[in-house]
Design goal:
Elements (H helix, E strand, L loop, with lengths): L2 H37 L2 H5 L2 E7 L10 H11 L3 E13 L2 E13 L6 E16 L2 E11 L6 H5 L3
Parallel strand pairs: 1-5
Antiparallel strand pairs: 2-3, 3-4, 4-5
């Protein structure tokens, strides 16, 4: 093998390792999103987004910006449990997209019971920032058109 071939192979290997590291970081961000929202940690939840990040519900509305993310998280007050699965992530430099399965449960305020609520998926756009990967947009899509989570929990 010539020196040129080994340098080319090394660069290819570096690119593959970087892509894997990015995908792991995005999956960890998704887990942090779930954990912070479910725990009612508004500050931690808002940290998962870019400064101009948005959650866009199927009706086109949704919170945007740090203060709205904190307020939305606080509104749900730990009454939701998110489970995300089967992430498909595409990296393009400092941007990425992710589609992952979503399973949601509701939880009673006294944490004595959970109830299945819905399935669907998130369609995400992400940006690499100095702090790491962050959501630019998250678009939750329900598999079935059932009552909204706001109606189910009697909030909002």
């Amino acid at each position: 093998m010539s020196q040129v071939e080994s340098v080319g192979e090394l660069e290819q290997l570096r690119a593959q390792v970087q892509e894997l590291a990015d995908k792991v970081a995005i999956r960890e961000l998704t887990a942090r999103f779930n954990e912070t929202f479910d725990a009612g940690d508004g500050e931690g939840h808002a940290d998962c987004y870019t400064a101009d990040g948005r959650m866009i519900y199927e009706n086109g509305e949704g919170p945007s910006g740090r203060e709205e993310f904190i307020a939305t998280c606080n509104l749900f007050d730990g009454q939701v449990i998110h489970v995300t699965t089967d992430a498909r992530i595409e990296i393009d430099g400092d941007t990425a997209t992710q589609v992952c399965g979503m399973i949601m449960f509701t939880r009673t305020k006294d944490r004595s019971a959970n109830e299945f609520f819905m399935t669907g998926r998130y369609r995400d756009e992400l940006v690499r920032t100095p702090e790491g990967w962050r959501f630019k947009t998250r678009r939750p899509e329900a598999d079935l058109h059932s009552m909204s989570l706001f109606d189910k929990l009697g909030i909002g």
